[in-house]
């Protein structure tokens, strides 16, 4: 299985934060987690020890998802300021990275995203992650997280680090590969769908899972949009790589989701799309170009803005 909500933590960060009870925003799938853990067995074995101040921040982070959306932006900014005030350390980077993942689960205001990016920039400046001798194929997750905030959430960062520059270049390369990607998958009713055969339509390709809270939260909005803009040629497809198809079907039926749910065995399509955390959504315009993409859960308003980039008229 793949990952959940965008926000992937690097092996050590994922292990340490999950140990504290703070789940990543873009949650990593069991397979992604296993890979991360294997890549940093030493880090995983050495559970971080948090100071009282760090533990207090972790406790605050645990409450973010239960905070009303109208208050969550301000609370996120406040937590970012608390993390920024900590002395530079790996723990500070862990907390900044964890907050980064939680900060994109909706629309809580641009300022809170900028505050989170500033804090992650500071943490990486104080505690840069040195690449291994053979230089891993992709930079450490915090660099990719910051690069995604800059590219897709339109914040700024003053980080001067070759790994950050490499992360930004990799995102551009990923986008090129996504535009070339194609798939033929079957939905829960047995109907076959091929992406390349949907030219002339605006297509939303959404990656999700039943076990992913942010994924579940945005599905009613996807269903509403699929119905509202069907006459304009909008097609919404959600892909799940879960092995238990009956569980997926039961969830969809019980929540009255009516747009197509496709089955992606072994996450093959997700890999083609470089999906490292879910929910993740790509919007293709009528010519098959990627018009917009999300790095996390989106609100209906955010989805509408993305669809307008592909030519959908509200």
Spans where pLDDT lies below 50 across 5 or more residues: 3-16, 39-43
What shape does the CA trace take?
Answer: globular
The main β sheet shows up as: 7 strands, mixed
Instruction: Kindly state the percentage of residues in helix.
Output: 40-55%
Indicate the mean pLDDT: 89
How many DSSP E strands? 7
Distance between the termini: 35 Å
In total, how many domains does the architecture comprise?
2
Structural Rg = 19 Å
Percent of sequence in beta strands: 5-15%
Major β-sheet strand ordering = 2-1-5-4-3-6-7
Q: How many helices in DSSP terms?
A: 13
Name the structural class. Answer: alpha/beta
Pattern of helices and strands = HHHHHHHHHEEEHEHEHEEH
